Amino acid sequence: MNKICVLTSGGDSPGMNAAIRAVVRSAEYYNMQVMGVERGYQGLMENKFRPLKSIDVANIIHLGGTILRSARSDEFRTADGREKAVQSLKRHKIQGLVVIGGDGSFNGAKSLSEMGIATVGIPGTIDNDLPYTEYTLGFDTACNTIIDAINKVRDTMESHERVMILEVMGRHCGDLALHAGVAGGAQAILVPEVPISTKKLVDIIIKGRDFGRRSFLMVVAEGVSGGAEGVKQEIKELGDFSVRTIILGHIQRGGSPSTVDRILATRFGYHAVSLLKNGQTNRIVGIKRNKIFDIDIVEGLSQKKIFDTELYEIGSL
Ligand code: F6P
C-alpha cells in the first residue's frame, strides 16, 4: 500500500487534528502518500481530496475542531452514495482509508471495506460511548472543559445558596456526566444508565442543608429523560428550592486538546497507519489498560458498553 487517505466524520472532538497529524507523519515514515478528505464521507463522494504532507499538519496538534472539517452525510448511507465514494478513491488510486469518528462513521468504514477498500477507524468522539475501547479521543478534553465550567459556577451557586443543574453531552452514554461529576465533586450525578428518583435528589438537598451545605451541584447527562430542565421542574414540585440550569452544549466539543488526548491521538494515528501498511482492513483501534489494540469493526461495535458502576458508587458516597 502506498497511498492512503484520512477523513474526520460525525461530531468533531478535540484531538482530531492531532490524529490527522499522526496519520500523515506515520504514513511518511512508511513512505506512503496521504490525501486528506474534506467534510467526511460527503467529501469522499464529492471528490474533495487534498494532498497532506508533514508541513501541512505542522502547528495543528494544539487545535480543536478538525482542519478537514466534518459532516454527517445522508447520501453516503445509500448504495449509490457509497459507490460514488469508491469510484473517487479508485480515481485517486487510493488503497486505504483512515476514518476518525464514532460508531456511525465506523459503520461507513465497514461498508467501504466490504467494497474492497482497506479501512481502519480511530475513535474520535467526546461521548466515550464506544463499547470496545476504554477511551475515545476528545473525552478527556471535554471532561476538563466541564470541570472548568463547574469551578466557575460553584462561586455563584454558593453565593446564592442555589441548586445548580448542569447538563452535559453524551447522547445515550453517561460517561461525561460520571467523570466530570465525580471530578467536579457533584452532589448528584444523573445518567441514563442508573435511574434515580426525584425524592432521592431532594433528600440529598435536605440532608446536606442539615449539616450546613448551602449549594448543590447536580450533573445531568443529556440522555436523561427531560434533561436539566425536566429535573429542575421535578425538584421544584417537591420543595421551595432556588434552582438554576445550565446546558453546556457545544462548548464541550471545542478547545485545545489535553495532553492525554494529544498522546492518545498520536498513538492511535500511528497504530492505524501500521495496520494499513500491514494489509489489514475493517479494523478499529482502541485503548485498554494503556495498551493500544485493534479489533474487527463488527466485533468491536457489537460489544456491550460497560458503565463504571464502581466509580458511580464511590462518587455518590
Ligand atoms: O456525538 C457527539 C455529540 O456531541 C453528542 O454528545 C451530542 O448529542 C451530539 O453530538 C450533538 O450533535 P450536533 O453537533 O449535530 O448537534
Put the structure in a nutshell.
With 317 residues, this protein is an alpha/beta fold. It has helices at 16-29, 40-45, 79-91, 103-114, 139-159, 175-183, 198-210, 227-238, 259-277, 297-302, 309-315, and strands spanning 3-8, 33-37, 49-52, 96-101, 118-123, 163-168, 188-190, 216-221, 243-247, 283-288, 291-296.
Defining key terms:
317 residues; 19% strand; four-stranded parallel β-sheet; elongated; seven-stranded mixed β-sheet; alpha/beta
Write up this protein.
The chain is an alpha/beta fold and 317 residues long. It is 42% helix and 19% strand. The protein is built from eleven helices and eleven strands. The strands form two sheets. A seven-stranded mixed beta sheet has the order 3-2-1-4-5-10-11, sandwiched between helices. Strands 7-8-6-9 form a four-stranded parallel beta sheet, with helices on both faces. Bound molecules: 6-O-phosphono-beta-D-fructofuranose.
Strand order of the largest sheet: 3-2-1-4-5-10-11
Q: Which structural class fits the helix and strand makeup? A: alpha/beta
Distinct ligands? 6-O-phosphono-beta-D-fructofuranose
How many individual β-strands?
Answer: 11
Note the total helix count: 11
Order of secondary-structure elements: EHEHEHEHEHEHEHEHEHEEHH
Give average pLDDT, whole number. Answer: 97
